[in-house]
Hints:
By secondary structure, this protein is mainly β.
Amino acid sequence: MSNTRNFVLRDENGNEHGVFTGKQPRQAALKAANRAAGTKKKPELIRLRERGTKKVHVFKAWKEVVDAPKNRPNWMPEKISKPFVKKERIEKLE
């Protein structure tokens, strides 16, 4: 039995769209960060609400273009975008 949890992406207005799964909130945030447009100098805020709870995990997220690993498969490009997240806080919904 896997312990994956579902996290819903929320915007500033509280609208929810997009579900990301992961065992930890950080894992789901990394998946969401890969779709975001934030940079290291101007990170984007990602809010993930855990399904079944009133907790909202808030992360600063960005991605950078880095060299692919040396043992990359042939189909992988030489440069890849790597997501980064930093947890800011946990908010409780009313």
